[in-house]
Amino acid sequence: MKPDYDLAIIGGGINGAGIARDAAGRGARVLLLEQGDLAQGTSSASTKLIHGGLRYLEHYEFALVREALSEREVLWSIAPHIIWPLRFVLPHRSGLRPRWLLRLGLFLYDHIGGRRALPATQTIDLTRNPEGQVLKPSYTKGFVYSDGWVDDARLVVLNARDAEMRGADIRTRCKVEGLRRDEGFWHIETSQGSFTAGAVVNAAGPAVLDLLGQAGQATQQQMRLVRGSHIVVPRLFDHEKAYFFQLADGRIFFAIPYEEDFTLIGTTDRDHTGPLSDVRASEEEIAYLCAGVNEYFQRQITPDDVVWTYSGVRPLVSDGSGRPEAATRGYRFEVDGGADGEGSDAPLLSVFGGKITTYRHLAASAVDRLAPLVPAITGAPWTHEAALPGGDFPKEGQQDLIAALRARRPDLPERTIRRLVRCHGTYVLAQDGPVGASAAQDGEDFGHSLCAREVDWMMREEWAVEAADILWRRTKLGLRFDGHQTARLEKYMAERRA
Predict the structure, then answer these.
(1) How many Å apart are CA 207 and CA 35, to the nearest integer?
(2) In terms of CB atoms within 10 Å, which of 16, 95, 357, 386 comes out highest?
(3) CA–CA dist 73, 395 (Å, integer)
(4) How far is residue 460's CA from residue 424's CA, in Å, rounded to a whole number?
(5) What is the CATH number of domain 398-497?
(6) Interatomic CA distance for residues 292 and 53, integer angstroms
(7) In whole numbers, what is the pLDDT of the chain averaged over residues?
């Protein structure tokens, strides 16, 4: 008997969606199962950066940094609507890392990752530079270096969309309730019915060990669950650069322009011991981030200024590090059965660790590992040069796309045009896309540029089911919606689901 699918992937975060896309593009019949919404957990709770991890150089993780740096421009080129370059200001702080050490680290950062289009590091005088005007007068010297910004939740959704366009079956709100091997393949019981698959990928993130237990599998791998919390406050500075700050306790954090009117600040690193269903910023974490900001900016903030917080649990490979921030952000695979799975029926590949910047390379490596065990997987890695949905335009062409939508819809506010392009890319110009040719075609306006046509698109094409899926993952309009607007949107979506 032939199974329903060649490969079932459990977990709709960035790793699961990336593996689904890669495997579907290599000919496998793929099923992706996610118990909630896509990117509902860790993958929508990142610091929104495509970066090498400058601080990981201190922990001698040169291979990880090199891999991540080499991915920055690859990801920018395949998704230039949701990923773009960002310059970071790194002020020198007396008494912490000396200036020569920062410059050496930035020299390595510029040269070990194949940087091509991103600008190189510069030394700046903060007393004369506009980026220094918002800082306290004690910060006089600093550096400016390059990394990238990403809309993390949309990155997951677009990988899932591309996987579906290549034949994958994507099922959200589909909880795995049973997982067992029998008759040479996997039998998967879910809240939406039963499925069979020749192989399974465990991409459950923080729940990776729980899923292994559910499948009756043992592992020697240890995980460290680390909570990262962020706060969002009204905009603290007017320019478009971000800040990389050092603290006296050895940690670092970022202050990043966010959604035009806000500043995103994070992250913390705390060992997480509570349930994965209740992950939130503690009062201590919020106060810690506010205090960190106040050490650098002239404008002081308090927890009362915080308009939103979010937290995610990072599933890090336990490497014996004493402090959470020192734990490796690398990843490992474990294939159950035989010599690394070879010759076994119904292989199970588990993914431990990882970071959003390296997701594409992780996915390609995972599918390479599965290829000898899953005959349907053929061909070489391909995702490094194939655009994600809406990203089929030159990586430096976002402004041209904005101009094209402006010409098509001169009635739209400039802010709306930018948001739509940075959300949907070239689909904003498609005849049947999320943006109509006129306001009449857009339908009801729920507030802050979100219209019925775009809501319908996200429900039809992007698995949005509830208002929170749209307001906090497909967009970040939840920062602007009030209770009445949210209720209107929820009622409309419920009627569309009926």
Answers:
(1) 12
(2) 16
(3) 9
(4) 14
(5) 1.10.8.870
(6) 20
(7) 94
Block residue for tokens 């009926």? 498
Tokens of 274: 């509570």
> What are the start and end residues of each CATH 3.30.9.10 domain in the chain?
81-151+224-322
The rounded distance, in Å, linking the Cα atoms of 449 and 442 is: 10
CATH of 5-42+154-222+328-370, one of 3.50.4.10, 2.60.120.260, 3.50.50.60, 3.20.20.140: 3.50.50.60
Closest CA to 103 of 95, 111, 326: 111
Tell me which amino acid residue 383 is. T
Structure tokens at 328: 């490796």
Which two three-digit tokens encode residue 417? 């045009």
The DSSP H or E segment spanning 364 is helix 359-370
Q: What is the pLDDT along the chain (498 residues), one digit of tens a residue?
A: 799 999 999 999 999 999 999 999 999 999 999 999 999 999 999 999 999 888 888 777 888 889 999 999 999 999 999 999 999 999 999 988 888 989 999 998 998 887 888 999 999 999 999 999 999 999 999 999 999 999 999 999 999 999 999 999 999 999 999 999 998 899 999 999 999 999 999 999 999 999 999 988 888 888 899 999 999 999 999 999 999 999 999 899 999 999 999 999 999 999 998 899 889 999 999 999 999 999 999 999 999 999 999 999 999 887 666 566 556 678 899 998 533 444 458 999 999 999 999 999 999 999 999 999 999 999 999 999 999 999 999 999 999 999 999 999 999 999 999 999 999 999 999 999 999 999 999 999 999 999 999 999 999 999 999 999 999 999 999 999 999 999 999 999 999 998
Number of other CB atoms surrounding residue 404 within 10 Å: 17
| Residue 312, CA distances (Å) to 160, 170, 267, 271, 498 in order | 21, 23, 10, 11, 32
Q: Does residue 232 contact residue 258 with C-beta atoms inside 8 Å?
A: yes
User: Cα–Cα distance between 268 and 202 in angstroms, integer?
Assistant: 27
Identify the CA nearest to 321 among candidates 205, 224, 253, 250: 224
Q: Is the dihedral of CA 45, 48, 50, 51 positive or negative?
A: negative
- For residue 313, give the H/E element and its range: strand 308-317
The tokens of 44 are what? 């929508």
CA distance 161 to 114: 29
Q: Are 449 and 413 in contact (CB under 8 A)?
A: yes
303-334 pLDDT tens trace: 999 999 999 999 988 766 656 655 667 889 99
Domain with CATH 1.10.8.870 in the chain: 398-497
Q: How far is CA 217 from CA 91, 212, 470, in A?
A: 49, 5, 36
